[in-house]
Amino acid sequence: MTEPATIDIRRDRRGTIDPLIYGHFLESAFFGNIEGGVFDEGSPLSYDGPGARNGLRRDVAELCRQLGLPVVRWPGGNFTSAYHWEDGIGPRDERPRRLELAWGEEESNRFGTDEFLAWCAEVGTEPYLAHSCRDVDEAVRWVEYTNYAGDTSYTRQRAANGRPTPYGVKYWGLGNEVYGRWQMGHRTATEYAAAAREHAQFMRAVDPSLQFIAVGLTDDRQGWTDEVLKTVGDRIDYLSFHLYGATTQLTDGADEYDAIVAQSLYFEQEIQNYSALVTELAARHGLRQPLGLALDEWNIRHVEPSAWPAPQPSDDGGTAERDLDGLPTAGPPHRVNRWSPRTLADALFYAGVFHALHRASGLEVPVTMANTVNLLNANGVVVARPGGAVRAATYHVWDLYQNHLGPVALSADVRSPGRLASVRQGDERDHNGQFQGRTATVADLDVSATETADGGSLRLAVINRHRTVAVRATLTLDGRVDALPPLATVKDLGADVDDVLASNSLSSPDQVALRDRGEQKLPDGTYDFPPHSVTLLSFALKR
Fold it and tell me: pTM above the 0.85 mark?
């Protein structure tokens, strides 16, 4: 046991947690997201028969329904920049097969707009369609195809393809990472902002209810965000930004647990800084309408030496075994392992990011949408293989925060033991190929306090980042120990797992999962939070 901690929950400081922060992301032609993932024609696990549901994996859809998906972004990502939506409608056998340049794959286009929107209806989620923002007419016709109720060539095509009534797609992205030279359609801020303004104007002429997500950039040395807000800020609802953490795959018995769980601090600092920048720029340009941030790509990447054999998926989930004898066990990592399974350590990192998003809910420009990369396979929260699908360790983080916390964020004043450490600054590397870090205090306990909408229940999520030692904390509400009930119902994740890099697989699907501990006493208002775990305490409050 370390030195004791204190947690004081304050009901006089509160914010609203937008449910869209628990959103997800699918990218076509990307490591089993679509084909072999949500869509698997001919599989005995997929829907058969006519219509756009044909080929959708039933088991994957069921896991997604059980979790609940507030919003899902598609078709990318980098794939968006060269995508033409009309390639993906009509009879599947007549659709063109294309060489796509984002990932160097051949895209069959057998999963297109109607299939994605049918899948969204199947799992009960809001679709978020991302357009390249390279061709105004193409974007307008996509909105016409999905949302227009009149009688035109495109609405007749939609009806012929099995959907006579409009889909009513609400969220639309205006490009993806257009600032990057890796994107087809890379442009300057001035060029992009002008294109985004024209796209928003004419897409909204088809459907005035559309909400737009424009491309933002946290590094504003080139004035990207300033130019976008100045030119199109009055026509958008969200400004996007992307954040990635990183961890190195090692083979010498060591691991990067401490580096993984600390990186949510980097995310929180970036969120706070970008919110402050957007707040300042919005005021400078006289923007009055509410504006939110969309963290519409985020994750932690598992990287490895490029000298290793290319990773391949195993039938049980995760990466197939490779012969690494004689190969480097360290050194600058250059390749992302997209098949590496999500671990308990990753789950604690995800929980820390959600805490950061909750704390940011009271900012003038909060994060009001977030989409993790990816929903399925490719480091996703669900893993699908030909033999079935399984919840990754991180699936249970979404379940805990989305389905068991309250929507009202409360402030928590926390005094916790911790350590001074170099916190990795995402996946940015220096000229030697080494990850960059900044010294910071990493507290053992990270706390998010929430309240249900009716005020009848207090929900306290507590991460104990310490690898091996429990932390005892005294809990108070508005400074009083007696203000909290002496009993709480408890759920936790990781408390019964010895290996901090444990993951789930088809053969061991529940190695890392939520455990229900029932009702527990809190003697003298204290609770011992287990090492490497997330704990949820729920208190019934008198009203």
Answer: yes
SS3 409: strand
User: For residues 197 and 203, is the Cβ–Cβ distance under 8 A?
Assistant: no
Q: What is the 3-state secondary structure (H, E, C) of 346-399?
A: HHHHHHHHHHHHHHHHHCCCCEEEEEECCCECCCCCEEEECCEEEECCCHHHHH
30: phi then psi, degrees, rounded to nearest 5: -130, 95
Q: Which of 100, 177, 227, 268 is labelled catalytic?
A: 177
Mark whether 270 is an active-site residue.
Answer: no
pLDDT in tens, 39-78: 999 999 999 989 999 999 999 999 999 999 999 999 999 9
d(CA 298, CA 271): 12
Question: Which tens digit of pLDDT belongs to each residue from 216-250?
Answer: 999 887 899 999 999 999 999 999 999 999 998 77
Task: For residue 284, give every residue at least 6 positions away whose Cβ sits within 8 Å of its Cβ, in sequence order, or none.
Answer: none
Among the listed residues 268, 297, 304, 451, the single catalytic one is 297
- Is 27 an active-site residue? no
CA distance 114 to 122: 12
Cα 230 from Cα 190, distance rounded (Å)? 10
DSSP E strand stretches across 126-204: 126-131, 171-174
Helix axes 395-404, 58-67, angle to 10 degrees: 40
Residue pair 337/302 in contact by the 8 Å Cβ criterion: yes
